[in-house]
Design brief:
This protein has about 350 residues and is an alpha/beta fold. The protein has two domains: about 230 residues, P-loop containing nucleotide triphosphate hydrolases (Rossmann fold); about 80 residues, no CATH class. Helices cover about 30% and strands about 20% of the residues. Bound molecules: iron/sulfur cluster.
Amino acid sequence: MDNLLEIKGLRVSYHTYQGEVQSVRGVDLEIGQEESVALVGESGCGKSVTGKSILRLIQAPGEILPGSQITFDGRDVLSLSKKELRAYRGGQASIIFQDALAALNPTMTVGRQIMENLLYHRKIGKREARAEAIRLLGEVGIPNPEKRVDQYPHEFSGGMRQRVMIAIAFACQPQLLIADEPTTALDVTIQAQIIKLLKQLQRENHTSILMITHDLGVVASIAQRIFVMYSGVIVERGSSDDIFYRPRHPYTRALLQAVPRMDQEGKQELNSIEGTPPDLIAPPEGCPFASRCKYAMPVCARLAPEVTDFGGGHRCACWLYHEMAPRVAELNDPDAAPAGEEVGQ
Ligand code: SF4
């Protein structure tokens, strides 16, 4: 499968009075045509910065550092002209955020906001754009779209506003949708509806999706591959099955232990991960997870872990898989994985 998006050695820093915050420290990630990929990690790990970098939405004091590469459909995103960038954003690649109210313009009807995107990217007139906006509102599940098209964002509930954002994002049938915590502010029932809608629109529009979330449970039903990010780096990547049933990195396992399991309702103790991530102004030389890892060895604090390839695209950056490391049964034995079939639903 040809990749639609390829990111190589992405580094993003924020220049602050305290020093250079190294938010993203060498990320490699690729997304195939019509593929759904999830980027998962705690807040502040650099996942949203990675998503924004794809659309070149990093603003000062942030900077995508030299040497980073982002290629979309064979084109170098980091050298697009202003005009090319406008056509790329919203036309070929779109983004939706957690806070739809903040992302929408409060002074403009939702219909106008959808039409703006259509009028800019497609060669159609106002009448046709309005009809298309109504059709799109109906398609994303807004009841009575002929009336709702003339209403303002504050007249919609949280779930309906997210549907409006999705209508804007899909207005020009983008090849890539970046969904940055799209369901975090919503209750569980609405979350499931939004994920179902994204899957349906992805199928109909042949779109690739990058789902960014702190919650592994949310991506269980949508992601084909998962990248786990910690402290600005990818610590594990693999198919959805690899991550849920054969997780290798201690951080991935800790994330999974924070996901409720349907088969253990009422019996399961959900674990939060103790400790805090390292300061990204002075990131550690060794493994960034060392200060929170119960398996940490002396080498972990001194040297960045080598990547072990388990085959089939499943890779993990952890010293425990070095040939000289002690074997830890619960990590080396896939059957000891903490998550079961019912994770996430
Ligand atoms: Fe833990 Fe060491 Fe592996 Fe890092 S490299 S996750 S500290 S065992």
